[in-house]
Every structure is written in C-alpha cells, then in structure tokens.
User: Fold this.
Amino acid sequence: TDQMNSSDIDLFPSSKTIALSTNASLKALDREEKKKLSFANQSICVRLSDNNGRQVCSWQVPRKRLVNSYIQTLIARSPAWNANNKCVISYLKENGSGSVILPADYRANCKPHPSSYYIALQTTRRVPDALNDEKYLGDSKFVISDVPRFTQNGKHEVTKEDIRSWVVFGLEEEDSDMQLKKKNV
Assistant:
C-alpha cells in the first residue's frame, strides 16, 4: 500500500505547473529587487560645519552615492569651501549619539531621516621627501615600538647600542647601496 507505482511520478509536469512556480519565484525576486532599490535610494542627511561648530551646508545624499569621493565633490562645490583648504573627509559623526562611522561603513550603517551626520575633516599635510632634496644633510630617525627590556635568554638588558647595532646590521644586509659600499671597502 505504501509502494509507489511508476505512474505516480510525474516526470513531465504540465506547462501550467511550471509557469505558476516560475511566476511565483519571479515575483519574489522582483520584491527583493524593489527592497534593494528602496534601500539604495534612501536619503541620508550629511552636514558640513565650520571651525566654530556652526552648520555651513547640508545635503540629502542617496545611500548609493554615500562615498568619500562624492561627498568631497559636494564640499568642493559649497560656498564655504576655500580652494587653498587641503582637507579630506576623515569620518562621519552622527548628530544625536555622536557615534563615528568610517568611510567603509557609510552605506551600511548610516540611518535615513531624522538622523543626520556631520562631516569630520582632516587636514592633509605634505611631508617633503629627503631623497628628492639634493641639499638635505641630516639624520634619519626611527621609532621602534615594543622593544623588549631584556634579551631572549633574559640575562642581559637591551641597551641603545644594541638597538643601534641591530638597525645598522639590517641596513647592511638589505640595502643594495650599503652592500655595494661594503664590497668596495
């Protein structure tokens, strides 16, 4: 009684059955696509303030365009922007909670109206490269963090001279100019 006959299995379903199942899955895909478009088109309020904290400009940016390059373009077009100003966007800060949102998370974590976000600008500085300056005469400084106080066996304390010797040895081993000078000596 619990056995199936070969006639019970429908190897070739009717075209109506296929059409109904295909239509239902297309509707689900269509709903999902509409949700994605709705999310991508949500309007996010982004604000720019001056050094005194007063709001200078405000924009409603669609979530899909919420990237540093687009916001930087808006700032450059604003009346408050000075062409000599060498600032770039560092992060967005939510107006109410003060939470910080980093550039990689703008699209995912920013909330639509009534939330708003202030742009935190960072001044860019160009550090002159000593290699390009033929008249530069000076020393190089290294900052080495997490230097152990004792050697690996723990018997000797690490001194400034030990660190200096270690850096010089590394330069002699890795720097091609230093290797050439060492061969010529």
Q: What stands out?
A: The CA atoms of residues 87 and 123 lie 4 Å apart. The two ends are 99 Å apart (CA to CA). Residues 15-40 form the longest helix (26 residues).
